[in-house]
Amino acid sequence: MAEETEASPATPPPKDPLRLRTRREPFEYGLLPIPKLIFSDCSATLASLKEKLLQRASSLRVDSSAIADSLQISIEHARLVLDTLASILPSDSDPLVCEKPDEVESVGVNVFDLILFLYIQTYKKLLPRTHKDSAAVTDVWPSTSAFDGYLSALSPLQLVRSNSRKFPSQSDEESHQLSYLQKHLANILSLLAEPVEGEGDESLVLSMERFEHLGFLIQFGEKGSETVPLRQIAPFFANSDPDMPAAAV
Hints:
It is a single chain. The chain is mostly helical. It has one domain (about 20-125, about 160-249). Helices cover about 40% and strands about 5% of the residues. The protein is built from twelve helices and seven strands. It has helices at about 25-30, 40-55, 65-70, 75-90, 95-100, 105, 110-120, 135-140, 155-160, 170-190, 210, 230-235, and strands at about 20, 60, 110, 195, 205, 220, 245-249. A three-stranded antiparallel β-sheet has the order 4-5-7. The protein has a two-stranded antiparallel sheet with strand order 1-6. A hairpin with an 8-residue loop joins strand 4 and strand 5. It is globular and about 60 Å long.
């Protein structure tokens, strides 16, 4: 009599790996044509600016007045920065996103979201171009193209007249954005980190709360699907105790 063989349980199909993507909103809608938001020595300047803002911050948040004073820009430009951040922050991450336009000022923006916003202003530097047509010189539209010098001074009308086949594709843009973040990630993490007490500025740690501010720039998950919180992606922070020590940078 043949032995009956037990049916082996079906092996569940492997889960698709989560895809790391840049958030398009900061790069496509958050780059403002305000020269004073672009710094030649970005990391050092923003490190100093961060300390200045933290001294003025109430619960780590600053309003347009503090932004204007710290950046030496007009109050109108500072309010534009605040309104822009309200429109490009992840929808579930910050109270600024949920407030009505006339209440944005009272809520303010988190200092670390502001620092990341200012850092990526270097992603695209709009350089002046000479052109034979004087009208074309005055008709400048701030492009968010990933490629410096390409479409940097074209108005919407000029874009229509251009050869669309030469335009970088959306995947090209996203790839370039991701490359930019990979190149600058060490500097960005340093700006989010804080020095270890008693060990000087060279020893930095990154808390879970500050690490999650990276969600302003990157996310895990496919387009149109629910994104996974960064704390569940990073092995150090996954399912961790909120009171656990921070990660060394």
